[in-house]
């Protein structure tokens, strides 16, 4: 092999100049989230040429809708660990399945309900409970 074989050629089919990308700037920016998660859809070597423009636009619109809907609902939550009995876990699971609400959401609702009561009523409810 000579040094001329290593020389870059302008007519190579896979050179960066000859690769024409088929997506808009907005789609590229929307795909940045996927890239951060390690699964880029538009700009990636393994998916190069596999996604058409229509699919990329659809995915970008879906991502934007998800961002908008999550932005409205976003509240600062912290993880917490609780010890619950098997019976309580089963009851919470039934409530969750019956209402299509997350278990943590149900717990937040119940805590909010209890905290909105007068202090005397709160104490009465807490001490009268037969739950161990």
What does this entry look like structurally?
The chain has helices at residues 25-30, 32-36, 53-73, 86-99, 103-115, 119-128. With 132 residues, it is an all-alpha fold. It has two domains: 22-73, no CATH class; 86-128. Residues 15-20 have low confidence and may be disordered.
Features:
132 residues, mainly alpha, 2 domains, elongated
Q: Which helices and strands appear, and what pairs or packs with what?
A:
Elements: H1 25-30, H2 32-36, H3 53-73, H4 86-99, H5 103-115, H6 119-128
Number of helices: 6
Q: Domains counted in the coordinates: how many?
A: 2
Which regions contain 5 or more consecutive residues with pLDDT less than 50?
A: 15-20
Radius of gyration: 27 Å
Spell out the helices and strands N to C. Answer: HHHHHH
Profile the largest sheet: none
**What percent strand?**
under 5%
Share of helix, binned: 40-55%
Q: What's the β-strand tally? A: 0
pLDDT average, as an integer? 76
Which structural class do you get from the secondary structure elements? mainly alpha
